Amino acid sequence: MIKKILILTNNSGGLYRFRKELISEMISMGYEVIASTPFDDNINDLQQLGVKLINININRRGMNPIKDFKLILNYFMLIKKVKPDLIVTYTIKPNLYGCSVARLLGVTYALNITGLGTAFQQENFIKKMVVKWYKTVCKKVKNVFFENEGNKNVFLDNYIVDESKCCVLNGAGVNLNDFYFTEYPHIDDKIHFLFIGRIMKEKGVDELFWAMEKLYVENKKVILDIIGNYEDSYQTRIDELTIKGIVRYHGYQNDVRPFIQASHCFVLPSYHEGMANTLLENAAMGRPLITSNIHGCKEAIIENQNGFLVNVKSKEDLYDKLNSFINLKEEKRIKMGIISRKHMENYFDKKMIVAKTMEKLIHD
Fold first, then answer.
1. What is the C-alpha to C-alpha distance for residues 196 and 281, in angstroms, rounded to an integer?
2. In a structure prediction context, what are the per-residue pLDDT tens digits for the chain, which is 364 residues long?
3. Burial status of residue 27 (CB atoms within 10 A of its CB: 0-12, 13-18, 19 or more)
4. Domains present along the chain, CATH in parentheses
């Protein structure tokens, strides 16, 4: 019988923002929840939920089992001390290192694939190592949770896990009360496109900046609001676009809702995603979407009804879709936002995701 659940993850802020409802459900059902995570953000919020927190250092850059041996050893000592009945892991290092230790110690574990990341993007030694390692931990896994069918198929195509152990969720879902429907803003002067995310190449920002600049040169009345931290050397480029009046950079924001409310369309031309929470949050608040035609993004789109899909890495196609949106009548944009909200209510309600997750973790 499960009494004590140990969660292993690499970011406390993400654990709170995307899993607080799941954790609350675990605690309300009488389970003791312990979370091992680097103390980044929302520590007090997690503690107020009733989670017992254990600080652990994780280098989120690169994978080197030799350099990460200390993390593996820390997981071993942690699991021996806590003696959990079930371990739930998120992100690649907790998945591989934590589940390897759990398997060695004979503790039941379930892992979450929140995105394949760069390890699966190229055919090289790193991918071969990661695939082999996942095969090993998945031999004894209780469940493997995926956020889209594409990621699941990659695991099946590489013979990593048996399909009977797979469960596809619609991402982490979206809290429809936190991200409430808002009235579509009237367009007086400029159309406000919004981007939320890490400012890095794999989020498609090169293509986005090119397309926005092209629209600006054509005297289109547009502006791009950007929220997020730099992960690559884009400061010079953003400064240049800011001076021209194409971009407004707002840095990292704890609460993105005022920016969503003021926007006319959310844009995410990402190269790969598990399930883009930013798409779900913007759609829940009634905004049209323009995003890549890939798993992890396209699930949020009903093509030509609440948004447009873009060929990945295609700056020309992104420009065309942005331009198409600009040329829509206001009534059409308003309708797209309403459809976005309805799509979230039908398929991405956080309550449904939590219930399905708990069914698999506890009762399956």
1. 11
2. 779 999 999 999 999 999 999 999 999 999 999 999 999 989 999 999 999 999 999 887 766 777 789 999 999 999 999 999 999 999 999 999 999 999 999 999 999 999 887 666 667 777 888 889 999 999 999 999 999 999 999 999 999 999 999 999 999 999 999 999 999 998 878 999 999 999 999 999 999 999 999 999 997 899 999 999 887 689 999 999 999 999 999 999 989 999 999 999 999 999 999 899 999 999 999 999 999 999 999 999 999 999 999 999 999 999 999 999 999 999 999 999 999 999 999 999 999 999 999 999 987 6
3. middle
4. 4-173+349-363 (3.40.50.2000), 191-347 (3.40.50.2000)
Q: How far apart are CA 213 and CA 244, in angstroms?
A: 9
Q: Report angle CA 99, 100, 101 to the nearest 5 degrees.
A: 90
Partners of 227 in beta bridges = 196
Taking the C-alpha atoms of residue 322 and residue 363, their distance in angstroms, rounded to an integer, is 46
User: Is 0.90 topped by the overall pTM?
Assistant: yes
Q: Whats the size of the chain, residue-wise?
A: 364
